[in-house]
Amino acid sequence: MMPAATATARTPIALTIAGSDSSGGAGIQADLKVFTALGVYGASVITALTAQNTRGVIGVETVTPAFVVAQIDAVLSDLAVGAIKTGMLATAAIVEAVAHRLSQWSRPLVVDPVMVATSGDALLAPDAAAAVKRGLIPLATLITPNLSEAACLLDAGAAQTESDMVEQAKAIRALGCEAVLIKGGHGAGDTAVDILFDGTRVNRFARPRLDTPHTHGTGCTLSAAVTALLARHAPLAEAVEKAKSFVWEGLQSGRTLEIGQGRGPVDVLFAIRRNLPTA
């Protein structure tokens, strides 16, 4: 293996290890758009190809674990990557290969334990959750499960209250990661609350819940935004707070994008779009 490039480049660089979304609203495509919008150069490792659109996932073709590792080595041996995120890893074999290889590279790591698409389609094999717990979570700077993913990781019921979310965040952190952000976007009520626990402090992030069906790629957008900000050397709590604001504005702007016939994407390019000249 070639020696690692040092993460000291003037241009901040982030790497996403995830699946491809043919409709462009989630996965690799969303991550790279987020990196660009936040002023970070994006590199990618593709774990799976999905045939999907705003209405659902039609099919999935996974990449061999060996070729996933080859992509990781190609990027990290050359580019001075400042932070890494994982998204859809699809199978236990890919999870194990990624975890083994990332254990040899020291970079801030954001793990988005992608299990189910916004449409409800499964994106992670049933036996892969155990591999995520065993191999990937102990490497993570931050893990970003939603309510159902947190419940799956703990083999428990979904959190119903903020107190439940805090207890589950503490339980997930005990699996070995540095910090946990449990996302409450799929919960009920007028306010969406996320809980960040770093082992010492509980941070609460609250935003008014937006009435919109266009939430495709929300989880990818949040984890990618945190990763980009970590690549720019933001402290973790600050990165999470700014990423939350980025997602909320993207959701608000995405209500009028009119992309697709189902659940449309978050408008991750809202800041760029605002600066475009009018026709």
Question: What is the topological layout?
Answer:
Elements: E1 13-21, H1 27-37, E2 41-53, E3 56-62, H2 65-76, E4 83-86, H3 92-102, E5 109-111, H4 128-136, E6 142-143, H5 147-154, H6 162-173, E7 180-182, E8 191-197, E9 202-208, H7 218-231, H8 236-254, H9 270-274
Parallel strand pairs: 1-2, 1-4, 4-5, 5-6
Antiparallel strand pairs: 2-3, 7-8, 8-9
Please explain how this structure is put together.
The protein has 279 residues and is α/β, with parallel strands linked by helices. It has a single domain, classed as 3-Layer(aba) Sandwich (UDP-N-acetylmuramoyl-L-alanine:D-glutamate ligase), CATH 3.40.1190.20. The strands form two sheets. Strands 3-2-1-4-5-6 form a six-stranded mixed sheet. Strand 4, helix 3 and strand 5 form a beta-alpha-beta unit. Helix 2 runs parallel beside helix 3 and helix 3 packs parallel to helix 4. The longest helix has 19 residues. The relative contact order is 0.16. The mean pLDDT is 90.
